[in-house]
């Protein structure tokens, strides 16, 4: 959808909401892809969303609801006070409703479950009992199975009946079970339709690949990849059919796993940011997901500082026999450079990976580039401020323990501590800015943002950090000594 088309649809949607025109609302849904309408609705205020949805038929509203972002779904579900809202939720497939309930406060969940028919409530409780990384947590239990004793004509009749009653999703594959509901085979819809109507299902079904409810979702993703399938049946420990998962379900899992692995490389806590799109994740959550690793890196880099410091001090003392005040100060200062550089470069890499991922998943539009750069710069400044304060305290303790600056003028001591801390603040701010700006500039010129090597980010941020620490410390020593 082009930018001009999107603006036209936004204006049309706003007019429908203002006038509350039922006919136009339903025409709007009929004439536009549901995913596009959902994308527009995601950007509206809650009050506007609550005005638009009741204008639609309940079935259409439920389908549109299923396309909305999780956060929007959660906000809407908590705002449903009328029977209409509860009816909308009941139109959702059980797995879709379970996903919504997981995000809601317990009192709201209880209210919705109380409105839910007993049979469906049992299904929901079962789905909610599985761990987040288990196949059972993402499966659909609204499926149509066929008995091996059926004829093809009977099987088609059951498929039609289940679909009309909305007891099952319409899919390409249908699973064959025996009298105890154990999974024994699979047939495609075409195989059932074009077979002799009197042919027994038991005579024509094919072998079936399946996964267990307690299998990890990564295993299901691997099975999909190996067998090139669009759906997979799910069985319990007795091999009884309990549900199915689609390739769409697994695509989400693969995306989450890839994101988690990518974030681990950059020292980002994926549990803080993995659920939301980049621009919809508050800056403080992004900061929280990154800051711990940067603090640990700064503290662990003290080991490098000690090695450089005492190694250079030993060499200087060996050559001069007596280390001078100047050489002591210079050595102590030089040992700080790898500490500041490593922290700065990792900060830039974090921003680069986050923005690259968001660009690859189309979470960032062209008109949002400036917003992204500003967001990363703000995160860089605040994380830089936190780390500068930690660095200030760290160096105070460090130099007190090493005691090699006791013979140095106090102002040199303070110049090194203050200069390196300010350099850390500025270099982290700049590194976040550059980490975000580089992939955006590449995207602006229609180049692949992922082609920017993190080594390039590291090299540039190292240069900037080194220049800052030298120039600031030199300026402070010149001013006060």
From TrEMBL:
Main location as per UniProt: membrane
Per the record's keyword annotation, is Transferase included, yes or no?
no
Stated membrane topology is: Multi-pass membrane protein
Q: Which residues form a coiled coil?
A: none
SMART domains registered for this protein in UniProt: CBS, MgtE_N
Tell me the InterPro entries matching this sequence. CBS_dom, CBS_dom_sf, Mg_transptr_MgtE_intracell_dom, MgtE_N_sf, MgtE_transporter, SLC41_membr_dom, SLC41_membr_dom_sf
Q: Which GO terms describe its molecular function?
A: magnesium ion transmembrane transporter activity; metal ion binding
Q: Which GO terms of the cellular component aspect does the record hold?
A: plasma membrane
* Cell compartment(s), UniProt: Cell membrane; Membrane
Q: Which PROSITE patterns match?
A: CBS
Q: Where is the CBS domain?
A: 204-262
Q: Which UniProt keywords apply?
A: CBS domain, Cell membrane, Magnesium, Membrane, Metal-binding, Transmembrane, Transmembrane helix, Transport
Residues crossing the lipid bilayer are: 291-316, 322-340, 378-399, 411-442, 463-480
Q: Which family does it belong to?
A: Belongs to the SLC41A transporter family.
Known role: Acts as a magnesium transporter.
Provide the assembly information.
Answer: Homodimer.
Name under which the protein is recorded: Magnesium transporter MgtE
The source organism is: Mycoplasmopsis caviae
The gene that this protein is the product of is mgtE
């Amino acid at each position: 959808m082009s930018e001009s088309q999107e603006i036209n649809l936004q204006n049309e949607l706003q007019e429908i909401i203002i006038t509350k025109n039922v006919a136009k609302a339903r025409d709007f849904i009929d004439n536009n892809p549901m995913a596009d309408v959902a994308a527009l609705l995601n950007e509206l205020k809650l009050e506007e969303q609550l005005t638009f949805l009741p204008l639609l038929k309940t079935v259409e509203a439920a389908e549109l609801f299923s396309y909305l972002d999780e956060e929007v779904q959660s906000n809407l579900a908590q705002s449903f006070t009328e029977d209409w809202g509860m009816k909308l939720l009941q139109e959702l497939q059980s797995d879709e409703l379970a996903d919504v309930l997981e995000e809601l406060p317990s009192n709201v969940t209880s209210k919705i479950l109380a409105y839910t028919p007993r049979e469906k409530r049992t299904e929901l409780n079962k789905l909610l009992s599985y761990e987040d990384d288990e196949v059972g947590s993402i499966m659909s239990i609204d499926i149509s199975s066929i008995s091996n004793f059926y004829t093809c004509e009977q099987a088609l009749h059951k498929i039609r009946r289940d679909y009309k009653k909305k007891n099952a999703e319409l899919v390409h594959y249908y699973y064959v079970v025996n009298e105890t509901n154990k999974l024994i085979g699979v047939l495609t819809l075409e195989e059932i339709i074009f077979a002799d109507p009197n042919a027994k299902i038991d005579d024509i079904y094919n072998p079936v690949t399946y996964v267990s409810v307690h299998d990890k979702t990564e295993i299901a993703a691997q099975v999909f990849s190996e067998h090139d399938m669009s759906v997979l049946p799910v069985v319990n420990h007795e091999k009884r059919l309990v549900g199915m998962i689609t390739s769409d379900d697994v695509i989400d899992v693969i995306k989450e796993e890839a994101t988690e692995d990518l974030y681990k490389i950059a020292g980002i806590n994926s549990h803080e940011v993995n659920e939301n799109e980049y621009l919809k994740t508050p800056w403080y959550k992004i900061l929280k997901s990154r800051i711990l690793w940067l603090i640990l890196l700064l503290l662990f880099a003290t080991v490098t500082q000690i090695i450089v410091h005492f190694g250079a001090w030993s060499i200087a003392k060996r050559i001069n026999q007596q280390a001078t005040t100047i050489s002591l100060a210079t050595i102590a200062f030089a040992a700080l450079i790898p500490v500041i550089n490593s922290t700065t470069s990792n900060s830039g890499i974090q921003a680069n990976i986050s923005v690259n991922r968001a660009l690859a998943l189309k979470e960032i539009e062209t008109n949002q580039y400036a917003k992204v750069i500003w967001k990363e710069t703000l995160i860089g400044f605040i994380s830089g401020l936190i780390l500068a304060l930690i660095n200030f305290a760290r160096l105070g303790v460090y130099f007190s323990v090493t005691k090699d600056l006791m013979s140095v003028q106090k102002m040199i001591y303070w110049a090194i501590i203050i200069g390196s801390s300010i350099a850390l603040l500025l270099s982290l701010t700049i590194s976040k800015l550059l980490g975000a700006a580089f992939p955006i500039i590449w995207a602006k010129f229609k180049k692949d943002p992922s082609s920017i090597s993190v080594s390039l980010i590291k090299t540039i941020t190292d240069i900037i950090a080194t220049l800052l620490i030298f120039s600031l410390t030199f300026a402070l020593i010149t001013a006060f000594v």
